[in-house]
Amino acid sequence: MTRVTLCSAKGSPGVTTLSCVLGAVWPAERGVVVAECDPSGGDLAGRFQLSVQVGMTSLILVERQRAMRPVDHMAHAQQLPGGLDVLIGPAGADSAMSLDHELGISSSTVVSSDCDLLADCGRLLPGAVGQEKMIRSADEVLLLVRPDVAGIAHARWAASKMRELSPSAASVVIFGTGPYQPAEVAGELDLAILGVVPIDHRAAQMAGGMPGSGKEFSRSALVRFAREIVVGLLERIPTTAVPDVAINTASSVRADDDRRRITRRLRPVPPAMRTSPPQQEEQTRAHFS
Known about the structure:
Elements: E1 3-8, H1 15-24, E2 32-36, H2 44-48, H3 56-66, E3 78-79, E4 85-87, H4 93-105, E5 116-123, H5 129-136, E6 140-145, H6 149-165, E7 170-175, H7 182-189, E8 192-197, H8 201-207, H9 214-218, H10 221-236, H11 249-254, H12 259-265, H13 284-287
């Protein structure tokens, strides 16, 4: 199992979108789940009209009730239009903070040992114990940073927190434009730069649930960038869960003629699927009382 945690500092959006696009280009031979572990609240239920009753909350509740018995995380997963498996987090901040507390004190690994995990932890918050747990347990932690004065000012605390929790596994992904060059951001934060997200509003909208063409999405600059990031991650993260896959990871992700594999996991939503927003979820705090 490979565990990658994505997070940001204040003013650096895009964590959920990047998590999903990375999941879309993850090698087809490997199972992968995107889990919403954001203590400020999740976005995927609203973007894709998914149920808020099944996901991270139900998973942690069942694991608490069953104590040491294993829980099948796939029983709590839902799928995005292309088939990417996701564990939905509650949208409301109160519910999300309650879930974060329960995640932090639980023994949950979220997914089984034969599945890779992309944990969308959103904006780093002080005292978010579940978020801290996901960072500590990660093989790699990616911090999204805007390369401007405000973005770097906010990112300094986040980078310090990441080094405290995961001293050898933290990297920066630059999001958006600004006066700072990648080398300057690396110097300011004392972290390596893993990549610079291209400005690709159209592909980002499609990854967030807006209608579009699967061919256009698979050929976008955002998807090409995600392929490069996944190749880099899987080449540098040791893995014992699926040893036979490591040999051909790069070729399977880079293959330009294998676009159907990408759209099987994350496909733009057809216009007919855009419906009314999901009903407000019950407060998670009540579930855990």
